[in-house]
Amino acid sequence: MEILGTPDERFSNLPGYAFKPHYLEADGQRIHYVDEGPRIAAPVLMLGEPSWSYLYRKMIPVFVSTGLRAVAPDLVGFGRSDKPANREDYTYERHVNWIIRFIQKLDLRGITLVCQDWVLRTHSAARSRITFRYRLISY
């Protein structure tokens, strides 16, 4: 699979987005995510498609101020995450698996999911395979 990436310089000086970048690898893709707040706190996982973690830049500090952990990935194909070059590489099943691998690699448990748009359908499929990791879903 041919992978494209957006240079980090393209993300410098974005208004209201001074979060430290974090990356992990899932099924050959580099996934960027924001991870703020105490690591031992209950995680709030914020997902949006078609979007990236910038969408949640105003919500992240609010969750953190209440003592929660705010985790907002840029799903594959969006933001700072890798972008497969070929359209055929963007499949529903791959997006589901990338979400699952992301959650497993960070070992997120007791998740409160905050999502918007069509990511709910994709994430519902992921959640059905790892149900025990969730506490609440809000969309």
Set out the fold topology.
Layout: E1 3-4, E2 22-26, E3 29-36, E4 43-49, H1 59-65, E5 69-74, E6 83-84, H2 92-106, E7 111-117, H3 119-129, E8 134-138
Parallel strand pairs: 4-5, 4-7, 7-8
Antiparallel strand pairs: 1-6, 2-3, 3-5
Helix pairs in contact: 2-3
List keywords for this structure.
6-stranded mixed sheet; 139 residues; two-stranded antiparallel sheet; alpha/beta
Description:
With 139 residues, the chain is an alpha/beta fold. The chain has 3 helices and 8 strands. It has helices spanning 59-65, 92-106, 119-129; strands at 3-4, 22-26, 29-36, 43-49, 69-74, 83-84, 111-117, 134-138. The strands form 2 sheets. Strands 2-3-5-4-7-8 form a 6-stranded mixed β-sheet, with helices on both faces. The protein has a two-stranded antiparallel ribbon with strand order 1-6. Helix 2 packs across helix 3. The longest helix is centred in the last third of the chain and has 15 residues, at 92-106. The radius of gyration is 14 Å and the shape is globular. The termini are far apart.
